[in-house]
Design brief:
Helix content is 84%, strand content 0%. It has 243 residues and is mainly α.
Length: 243
């Protein structure tokens, strides 16, 4: 019941912001699962929730097919790379700097207006479509997402808001798709190369489907200011939890 409930919470948070792993991963550790098993099982389990969230955001996704494809290519490359790194490197090698990554992402979100003023003209002129910087950012956030994934959505959304001139809810919708794609490709790697606890993955999957639908239903109604506030609250909570 606790793991299923964690899946609901993670699916909701991933759709609205993108830090659901910080709910499910500690929950699995609390029940005695080994870190790598918990991580890979969690990644596989959260994939259906991303699909559910993307369906809920289908209106905001209209007209973003080309953007989603470009960002998806970078996310796929990054997700596979991160999954391989998880299997090959010590878990502490990347996890130690996770709080720093989250803090940087929050600073980007909070300082968005100031940064927009600094790069506004160049940004508006160059970002009618999807700039290379956004695709590169999706690739690097995909590496992080494939390795651990906590707050990947926060970092990705921060990068998208700085590189693409568009409504925050539309960017959040494409973030749901691209971050979900990272989980998918990393999950495929884990299925073939790691030990997945399918019982745990199934519980998280069931919960994340429900949570993804809830997140899309209510998260898409938030104003940009409210959405930013939620991002900051979840991000700060994530840093505190990790430290």
């Amino acid at each position: 019941m606790a793991i299923f409930a964690a899946g609901i919470a993670a699916g909701t948070i991933n759709t609205v912001v993108g830090a659901g792993t910080l709910i499910t991963f500690p929950t699995l550790l609390a029940f005695g699962y080994a870190p790598v098993v918990a991580n890979v099982s969690n990644t596989v389990g959260l994939v259906p929730g991303s699909v559910s969230g993307a369906v809920g955001y289908r209106r905001e996704l209209r007209g973003q097919r080309r953007r989603a494809i470009m960002l998806g290519i970078g996310s796929t490359i990054g997700g596979v790379t991160g999954a391989v790194l998880l299997l090959e490197l010590p878990a502490s090698a990347f996890k130690d700097i996770v709080p720093v990554f989250i803090a940087v992402a929050l600073l980007l979100i909070v300082g968005q207006r100031r940064l927009e003023a600094l790069i506004g003209d160049r940004r508006r002129a160059a970002h009618q479509g999807t700039p290379p910087a956004a695709a590169i950012g999706a690739t690097f956030s995909g590496v992080y997402g494939g390795y651990f994934g906590a707050a990947q959505g926060i970092m990705l959304l921060a990068l998208l808001t700085l590189t693409i001139d568009d409504d925050l809810q539309r960017l959040n919708a494409v973030k749901v798709v691209t971050a979900g794609l990272v989980n998918l490709v990393a999950g495929i790697v884990f299925v073939f190369a790691a030990s997945v606890d399918w019982g745990v993955a199934a519980l998280i999957a069931g919960g994340s489907i429900l949570g993804g639908a809830l997140g899309a239903r209510y998260g898409r109604r938030l104003s940009p200011a409210a959405l930013k506030a939620v991002i900051v609250i979840v991000g700060v909570s994530a840093i505190v939890r990790l430290l």
